[in-house]
Design goal:
With 127 residues, the protein is α+β, with helices and mostly antiparallel strands. The chain has one domain: Peroxidase, domain 2 (Orthogonal Bundle). It is built from five helices and three strands. It has a three-stranded antiparallel β-sheet with strand order 1-2-3. The longest helix is centred in the last third of the chain and has 16 residues. 25% of the residues are buried.
Length: 127
Amino acid sequence: NLLGVSAPQMTALVGGLRALGATYDRSTLGVLTDRPGTLTNDFFVNLLDLDVTWTSVDPEVGIYEGRDASGEVRWTGSRADLVFGSNSELRAVAEVYASDDGADAFVDEFVGAWVKVMEADRFDLPR
């Protein structure tokens, strides 16, 4: 809790940054959307899609492939991405953001968390 954000806020930040394509070295790892650069809840929708099966392709590095029903690789993700589907608390939050009416809640949470983190070291702001 070093950034002072809650689990829902951190979940929104990670999912939002992944949807925006803000990754190291322009990697597509964890960018679970067909619309990178757009702040959407696609990361959560695609992570929790029951038609996608995740399997480890490199256990040492922690890389996973998400394959659809035809066996085609749809997505690649890391342990840091898949934790939002496997940890019970984070999954509950991810399910809210992935729901049909969860997009607005996700965007609101992302914006609030982003502002909170960006202003965390701004000691010139009134508190």
